Amino acid sequence: MMSGDFSEAFIFLFDVVLDLFSASTVCGVHHKRLKFWKSQNLLCTSNVLHTSRKLLKEATNIFETMRSGETAETSIMNAEELASPNNQPSMQLQYLKWPIWVLGPTLLLATGMVPTLWLPISSIFIGPNIASLLSLVGLDCIFNLGASLFLLMADSCARPKNRAQGCSSKPPSSYQFWNMVANIVGYIIPLTMLLGSQKGFLQPQLPFISFAVLLGPYLLLLTVQILTEMLTWHWQSPVWLVTPVVYESYRLLQLMRGLKLGVELGAPSWMVHTIRGLVCCWVLVLGMQLMRVVWYTGFTARTYNQESSASVDVN
């Protein structure tokens, strides 16, 4: 009986030890599995974070590339818009302006030089009367029409192609002053001669109608020149520099025509000498105007070179 009880107790203890050993083994395995799962989770989490960071970086690069591409496309589109015919004048309009360079001087030739040089004076000059005066004034009015059209064409060529850009050319005050002085002197000399003739200081006297035939068209065109110059100064047109050159060149033809008519009218010597003096004065003034054109061209060239060098230095 005692031996049976001892064997049963031994078997019970052995079962308990086995249970404890199996439980510890299972717990160890479970613990190892738990640690392995945690490490796997950490590894997966780190892999996921690394992958997400990489994707975010690639996405950022993609967005930056897309933005740079959009910027390049925008700049290209802006350049194309600037180069489009709506923003810049077409070459066709520029080609249409080329004939003006020939048409303008041709108008001056047809309205000024041809009637004066080739039209016989005897066909329009009948004598010292109103009809002859009106005929001579009509010739000068034809020239004035051609000169006005020429100045309008020259202004159109000088204006910038893009109308949005302003174009104002104001002459210096000294230039305006000396131009007005020359024009006033051109008035004073013939009127002084007329007054001296009427007062009897100059002999023989010259009738008023003969004086009007000789110098009336000259005084009228001088008045038109003054008005034209004042308008170009007021409008700040680029043609202010060539306006006196155009009218003063024709004035020389007027005075040479007056010398021919003076011979036919039998004008006194003092009148002939007065007209010759006016010719010399206006040749001098015309030479000064041409010198002014040369100076202005050199000044413009110097200014352009300075701006070009400054832009190169900035770049």
UniProtKB/TrEMBL annotation:
Superkingdom to which the source organism belongs: Eukaryota
DUF7733 domain location: 140-259
Alphabetical keyword list: Membrane, Transmembrane, Transmembrane helix
Pfam families (UniProt xref): DUF7733
Bilayer-crossing regions: 6-29, 98-118, 130-154, 208-227, 275-295
InterPro entries in the record: DUF7733
Protein name stated in the entry: DUF7733 domain-containing protein
